From TrEMBL:
<dbReference type="InterPro" id="IPR000515">
    <property type="entry name" value="MetI-like"/>
</dbReference>
<keyword id="KW-1133">Transmembrane helix</keyword>
<feature type="transmembrane region" description="Helical">
    <location>
        <begin position="37"/>
        <end position="57"/>
    </location>
</feature>
<dbReference type="Pfam" id="PF00528">
    <property type="entry name" value="BPD_transp_1"/>
</dbReference>
<feature type="transmembrane region" description="Helical">
    <location>
        <begin position="69"/>
        <end position="92"/>
    </location>
</feature>
<keyword id="KW-1003">Cell membrane</keyword>
<dbReference type="InterPro" id="IPR035906">
    <property type="entry name" value="MetI-like_sf"/>
</dbReference>
<comment type="similarity">
    <text>Belongs to the binding-protein-dependent transport system permease family.</text>
</comment>
<keyword id="KW-0812">Transmembrane</keyword>
<keyword id="KW-0472">Membrane</keyword>
<feature type="domain" description="ABC transmembrane type-1">
    <location>
        <begin position="31"/>
        <end position="225"/>
    </location>
</feature>
<keyword id="KW-0813">Transport</keyword>
<dbReference type="InterPro" id="IPR051322">
    <property type="entry name" value="AA_ABC_Transporter_Permease"/>
</dbReference>
<dbReference type="GO" id="GO:0005886">
    <property type="term" value="C:plasma membrane"/>
</dbReference>
<protein>
    <recommendedName>
        <fullName>ABC transmembrane type-1 domain-containing protein</fullName>
    </recommendedName>
</protein>
<dbReference type="GO" id="GO:0048473">
    <property type="term" value="P:D-methionine transmembrane transport"/>
</dbReference>
<feature type="transmembrane region" description="Helical">
    <location>
        <begin position="205"/>
        <end position="229"/>
    </location>
</feature>
Length: 235
């Protein structure tokens, strides 16, 4: 058998391995685990980040709850965590993850630092979008006697809803990246699938399948977010 035949046989073997992962449900399980990690992280971290982002905006000097000390403390904490590459953050959080979750391996162990990082990232995105809200609209609501909480729920967030939707779509991409990196600690999902069956077994079909699946997920979410944001902006 010549060199070409050897290469062809090896490629066929890799392809058969890849198709076996489809037939035995490994690929489907990986996709389900990724969706579970990403959407639960976005749900929990996104809500916590929304609350924290509103607090950041509100405690800015001159805003509804202006408090320079509280704002500075939160600002410093977020600036300390946000720049850390997630793979390093996973390692740094390992003792805390073990204390809270009971293990540093698996989907739950991966989600804990993912939620923390998602909360921090989304809080800054929320704050930046709320800052761009027209101050005149807020002042008009205050002059009409609307409560501070009422201003947040009926004026501030609705006015910023379209850019917030786009911000959370961008956040989805970041969380999807985090879920892929979580594969290094056996977090499951597409990342773990690509590492265990693609990278470690030198199977390019598995690796490219993981890449294509993640691209499709991003395109779907971004398309939905763009449609919602466009609809809101037309109102």
């Amino acid at each position: 058998m010549g060199l070409t035949g050897i290469v062809s046989a090896a490629a066929n073997e890799k392809w058969l391995d890849f198709t076996s992962y489809i037939h035995d449900g490994s690929l489907g399980t990986a996709i389900a685990e990724t969706l579970e990690m990403v959407f639960l992280t976005l749900l929990i971290g996104g809500i916590l980040g929304l609350i924290l982002g509103v607090v950041l905006w509100g405690t800015r000097p001159g805003n509804l709850f202006g408090n320079a000390v509280v704002y500075k403390i939160l600002d410093v904490i977020i600036n300390l965590i946000r720049p850390i590459p997630f793979i390093i953050f996973l390692a740094a959080m390992q003792p805390v993850t073990i204390a809270v979750i009971g293990t540093s391996i698996g989907t739950a162990a991966a989600m804990f630092p993912m939620i923390i990082m998602c909360t921090v990232a989304s809080s800054r995105l929320v704050e930046q979008n709320l800052v761009s809200t027209d101050p005149g609209v807020i002042e008009a609501a205050r002059s009409m006697g609307v409560s501070k909480f009422g201003i947040i729920t009926t004026v501030l967030i609705p006015e910023s809803l379209a850019p917030l939707i786009l911000a959370y779509a961008f956040l989805f991409i970041s969380v999807l990246d985090m879920s892929a990196m979580a594969g290094y600690i056996g977090g499951g999902g597409i990342g773990n699938f690509a590492i265990a069956y693609g990278y470690q077994k030198f199977n390019p079909y598995v690796t490219w399948a993981a890449v294509i699946i993640m691209i499709i997920l991003v395109q779907i979410v971004q398309g939905i977010a763009n449609a919602f944001a466009k609809r809101l902006l037309r109102r």
